[in-house]
């Protein structure tokens, strides 16, 4: 169903209203009543009024538009008083609270000056509301990088935020997000409001379905290896193959976002490998890799990880699921996890070169510097998905975007089983695929800030 595309630009006041309305709706569904002008962290943190939340977000938004010695201003800030963090704590399992002797007024220029001392991936800036109703910067909280574990590949517990604390993230110019601890409540990106509840592509049905055949092959190979094992293995939950594969993609995308270079990842049907690599159909790959085992290292690592988990997990703890993987202390699992992490970094680094990184849906790495052909194919419009499954959409002219996005549209128009993922310089992620007889795209918004 097509929906008219009405031009609209969202600003901090719109984000504040969106956050408050969402929290109010969540409270109502839980049987609680909460005025729409307030949001509900724990009582001892105070309840920011709509005016306070608008001020908090407005200053943060303005700070993202500034530069500090020619560097973009990026930051995370947490809205709660210093006593919300224990004194005797610190990374990697806790957070280190560092209070200023003299607190600073909460302004965009104060954020600009302090942000370089609180790197986005490792620290936060503490902000609270005084008894006099003033927003003040009270210090820095060192979190370490474990909060990013679901994106960068770490396992185990992340440092705990104060329960219900609001976190405001400014990852780039004009980009602003609000989290409740690690749950993304909403964000402004590209001048529009985005809600993670509706656009986390990894929670859709269509995206995992694109890899059904590849997952089936992995399960068959694992079953064959188990059949020749001297002792029975602990069974695996079938979902773990999907979860591990998605984690690989998340790691690649997270690394590409951090680079701020932008890039395109093409996932092609394995049957097209000869046409692409030998006949240069659809994609001309400038730097092609030799057809040998290193090109297929990802599959080998996944099979190794699955068999190791099956062999080292006691039968009484089975079947093996995602939680088993996360809490495993097996050294071999840790080594395989690190190897998968490095493979993700390798693929993301290849995207720094102009052109697309080209892989199959088995995650076989064909090459990089790919030039998408089919330049003679004319596409006037593309569908922008308004929900996870693309049942609602808006039509957009393709000339609204740059060459990188238009090339991805052309590829998915020519290869209906392909998936293209485009990462913009500002960190935006767009999934492109052929669905319901048309090219459609989804602007991905993760549910968790740890996937940024």
UniProtKB/TrEMBL annotation:
<dbReference type="InterPro" id="IPR036888">
    <property type="entry name" value="DNA_integrity_DisA_N_sf"/>
</dbReference>
<dbReference type="Pfam" id="PF21751">
    <property type="entry name" value="DACNV"/>
</dbReference>
<dbReference type="InterPro" id="IPR003390">
    <property type="entry name" value="DNA_integrity_scan_DisA_N"/>
</dbReference>
<dbReference type="InterPro" id="IPR048551">
    <property type="entry name" value="DACNV"/>
</dbReference>
<feature type="domain" description="DAC">
    <location>
        <begin position="269"/>
        <end position="444"/>
    </location>
</feature>
<protein>
    <recommendedName>
        <fullName>DAC domain-containing protein</fullName>
    </recommendedName>
</protein>
């Amino acid at each position: 169903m097509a929906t008219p595309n009405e031009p609209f630009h969202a600003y901090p006041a719109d984000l504040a209203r969106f956050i408050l309305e969402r929290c109010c709706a969540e409270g109502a569904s839980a049987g609680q009543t909460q005025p729409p002008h307030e949001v509900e962290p724990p009582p001892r943190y105070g309840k920011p009024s709509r005016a306070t939340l608008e001020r908090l977000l407005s200053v943060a938004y303005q700070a993202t538009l500034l530069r500090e010695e020619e560097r973009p201003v990026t930051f995370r800030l947490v809205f709660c008083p210093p006593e919300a963090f224990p004194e005797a704590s610190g990374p990697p399992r806790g957070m280190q609270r560092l209070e200023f002797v003299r607190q600073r007024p909460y302004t965009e220029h104060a954020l600009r000056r302090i942000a370089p001392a609180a790197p986005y991936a490792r620290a936060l800036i503490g902000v609270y509301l005084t008894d006099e109703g003033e927003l003040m910067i009270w210090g820095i909280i060192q979190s370490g990088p474990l909060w990013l574990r679901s994106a960068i590949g770490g396992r185990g517990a992340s440092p705990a935020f104060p329960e219900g604390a609001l976190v405001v993230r400014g990852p780039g110019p004009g980009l602003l997000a609000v989290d409740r601890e690690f749950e993304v409540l909403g964000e402004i990106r590209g001048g529009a409001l985005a809600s993670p509840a509706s656009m986390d592509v990894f929670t859709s049905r269509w995206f995992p379905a694109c890899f059904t055949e590849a997952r089936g092959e992995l399960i068959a190979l694992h079953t064959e290896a188990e059949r020749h094992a001297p002792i029975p293995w602990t069974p695996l939950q079938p979902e773990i193959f999907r979860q591990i594969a998605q984690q690989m993609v998340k790691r690649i995308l997270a690394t590409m976002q951090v680079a701020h270079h932008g890039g395109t990842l093409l996932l092609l049907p394995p049957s097209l490998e000869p046409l692409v690599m030998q006949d240069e159909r659809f994609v001309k790959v400038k730097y092609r890799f030799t057809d040998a085992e290193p090109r297929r290292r990802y599959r080998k690592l996944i099979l190794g990880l699955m068999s190791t988990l099956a062999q080292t997990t006691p039968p009484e703890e089975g079947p093996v699921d995602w939680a088993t993987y996360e809490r495993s202390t097996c050294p071999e699992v840790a080594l395989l996890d690190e190897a998968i992490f490095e493979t993700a970094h390798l693929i993301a680094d290849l995207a720094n070169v102009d052109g697309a990184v080209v892989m199959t849906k088995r995650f076989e790495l064909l090459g990089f510097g790919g030039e998408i052909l089919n330049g003679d194919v004319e596409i006037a419009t593309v569908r922008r998905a308004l929900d996870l499954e693309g049942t609602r959409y808006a039509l957009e002219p393709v000339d609204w975007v740059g060459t990188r996005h238009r090339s991805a549209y052309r590829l998915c128009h020519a290869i209906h089983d392909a998936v293209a993922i485009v990462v913009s310089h500002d960190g935006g992620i767009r999934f492109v695929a052929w669905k319901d007889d048309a090219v459609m795209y989804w602007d991905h918004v993760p549910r968790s800030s740890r996937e940024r």
